[in-house]
Specification:
The protein is of the alpha+beta class. The chain has six helices and 21 strands. Helix 1 packs antiparallel against helix 2 and helix 1 packs across helix 5.
């Protein structure tokens, strides 16, 4: 069973270590659920997560038009142009699925996908062969929204040029604090950094038939907060219980195309560690590192330094990978935390 959750984060959040991350990965979500499941006695949920029964996506933004559109980071396809200059960061699930369908034709003709140009507010995707010849396979439209000064381009790619009401509003947040040393009475200034988001967010979880325990844990977790600096009031969110009208095409793609497919391209909705399951010559991967400190103040521990394929990476599978569980060793008091890699994907 696949279930979509919608949430709104009311305060800034800090996920990561020295440099906070804009997107909250599925590993953070699963680790938070494991920790809370131990505390509340839902040990069956811990077993399901550890055994790979529960898959999850990262927590990603939506934008509002007639209905809510579900967004994913645009895959790192090679490009002749600097797409960041055009503020291109996100793609709708409908357009992402169409992109994967089209670029699957490239390896079959001994070529690779390539962003060749921007023509008439459309991003042109081609297959480029070894001899340099190109074949146009897809055009993606810049999704637009209405603004007081007229119509402006946003950073969202879609198959339709339908006007939306919102932009993706995730911005860097800095807070300056001061505390008084209880012994010397001197000031001790410090700075908190993270991100704040004004959009409604979405994430999806594929689990067994029972989701009641998961629903309850998420409600409890909304009161505790997500990420770091929770003692400073950061990371508080609310799961939206009322119905959210989602674009039918985006919802249908998520419902029917979240299973790994071999000999095909797959876009990661959460970070992953691979061994020999993918063809690196045909894949396009953003690398991220997981590291830092975790745990409560009374039981702090170091996370291992892990290099992972980041959210939005485009991987060409030779065979289907399984979930991966990494036990964090060397923790005090017999504590046995885990990092679980079991992401949802969008496939052809």
């Amino acid at each position: 069973m696949l279930k979509i959750y919608f949430m709104r984060i009311y305060t800034p959040y800090h996920v990561g270590w020295r440099n906070p991350r804009k997107i909250i990965d599925h590993t953070t979500l699963l680790r938070a659920l494991i920790s809370l499941a131990y505390e509340t006695g839902y040990t069956k949920l811990v077993e399901q997560i550890s055994n790979g029964v529960i898959k999850a996506s990262a927590i990603l933004p939506t934008v509002k038009g007639d209905r809510y559109r579900l967004l994913v980071p645009i895959p790192p396809i090679p490009s002749k142009i600097k797409i960041r200059k055009y503020n291109i960061h996100w793609i709708t699930l409908e357009a992402l699925h169409e992109l994967i369908e089209k670029i699957n034709e490239c390896p079959r003709h001994d070529s690779l996908p390539f962003i060749s140009s921007i023509e008439n507010d459309k991003l042109v995707i081609t297959c480029i062969s070894r001899d340099g010849s190109e074949e146009k396979i897809l055009e993606l439209t810049f999704l637009k929204r209405r603004h007081r000064e007229g119509i402006i381009n946003t950073s969202i790619l879609d198959l339709r040029s339908k006007i939306v009401d919102e932009d993706v509003d995730i911005f860097y947040q800095v807070e300056y604090h001061n505390r008084i040393d209880r012994i010397t009475g001197s000031a001790d200034p410090y700075v908190l950094t993270g991100y704040k988001v004004n959009n409604i967010l979405w994430f999806a979880v594929r689990s067994g038939e029972e989701s009641e325990a998961l629903d309850k844990l998420l409600q409890i977790h909304s009161e505790i907060g997500l990420g770091g600096y929770r003692s400073r009031g950061w990371g508080h969110f609310r799961i939206i219980m009322e119905n959210i009208e989602v674009d039918y095409n985006d919802y249908n793609i998520l419902l029917n195309n979240t299973i790994w497919k071999k000999e095909s391209y797959n876009v990661l909705l959460g970070s992953m560690i691979f061994n020999d399951e993918i063809d690196y010559g045909k894949s396009f991967i953003n690398i991220n590192e997981i590291e830092g400190k975790a745990g409560p103040t009374y039981n702090e521990y170091d996370l291992p330094v892990l290099q992972v394929a980041d959210i939005g990476s485009l991987v060409y599978l030779l065979r289907e990978p399984g979930h991966l569980v990494i036990d964090v060793t060397g923790t005090p008091h017999g504590f046995n935390p885990k990092i679980v890699f079991n992401p949802l994907v969008i496939s052809a």
